[in-house]
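FAQ: What does the model actually see?

It sees only this:
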Amino acid sequence: MTNVKSDFNSFSRRTFLAGCSTCAIASAAVHAASSLSTLTRDELIPNVKTKVRIVYSHSNPETPIWPNIGYDFEARKKELTRQLQDACPEIEFLPVTIQSEEQVKQLLENDRDIDGYVCFILGLGEGLVSPRTILDSGRPVVLADDLYGGTGRFLGEYGRAYRNGLKVVGISSSNIRDVADAARCFAAMKKLKHSKILDFTLREKDRLWGNAKIEDFENLYGTKIEVLKADVLNEAYNHANQEQAQAWAKQWIRKARKVVEPSEEEIIKSAAMYLALQNLLRKHGAQAVAIDCLGLFYSQNMFAYPCLGFFQLNNDGLIGACESDLFSTITMLIMNYLIEKPGYISDPVIDVSKNQIIYAHCVAMTKVHGSKGKSNPYDIRDHSEDRKGAAIRSLMPLGEMTTTLIFRPDKKIVVMHRGKTVENIDEDKACRTKLAVELDGDIQKLLKGWDHGWHRVTFYGDHQRIVEQFAALNGIEVIREA
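And it is asked to produce this:
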């Protein structure tokens, strides 16, 4: 009996100690998960104040005019200024009324730190000073008609400026938010000038993916491109916190609908890569990262795919871009600043029999409406081409309009089409995420005119107008593919 009791006590002690050990590990995991190292949008997005000059022009209210004799222009100017400031708190609006051509020239001479102009034509008649000199200056201008006030002059000036290819957006609307939306393009442009993209590649600076030229990005947008080698990425990967990597892996697995091929060890490697990207973005003060993932992985110069890390960055309001495609990267960054939504890079496949485009890739976000929006389901799969690593199959919302585009600074164009999401295709061929969209337009035109690179970037929502406005203010041609 004594031996039996002794064995029982020994067993109980071992069980108790093992249980304590398990509890300690579980507690550590819970603690790590509750304090995950997360990189937020607010941490890295440039905190710069945009200055926009509001220029009011109107006629003498003591004479017969539009809107009418005796009209209170001063009250109207105060009202418009207040409405714009309320709608765009991130912008500092500086109002002025132009009363002579000499004043306009002096204004342009002094406005060296102004990021853009909103020109309101408030009334027609005697004493009106045209904003034409400002339009012709080459500065970006939002030209606005205050309805029933400046309509005749607005129509003539905007039509002339548009035909001459000036950097102008015309707004003729009773809703001040239409003017505010266009003015937000100035804030996006200011952020781009203070932004940086990290590009990890084996390529030299003069032989980047798609023949992209660094100077094109800097000259058009002011955005810096920093080209880095694989050893910088690998050093950050090797120094990633393993407890944090395990915690991130467990969270991704827990939130996934299912994990198909990858082992937990493989997902932990992906999490370590994500932590490396966090640290590199912080260290270099960058908002976006592009990696030549296929080239580096196939050549054994990278040891974990960045797909899950990109998925997390894009969900959190930053930019992770595949294959060192800087054109897609700048597209994602521009739209991030314009609409605060992530983009989905893809290799589109066209199915004319269904009037569909299938956007296929192994990286996709799950918060299609922005970092504060809902998450859609996802599966964790291996990477399609080589059946290795860990990637994402995102099952994105259906029945919604999307805008798909690519900005090409080398050609000073943006190429764009739209469609409605209809299916998340489950097909073993090609990349893991396959979002099918029914095209809004002529699919044969799309098929015949696809000559601006294979990749496109898809954003949920109809964003044609804001893209066109941003393009106009930057002197970029808009090509509607369909």
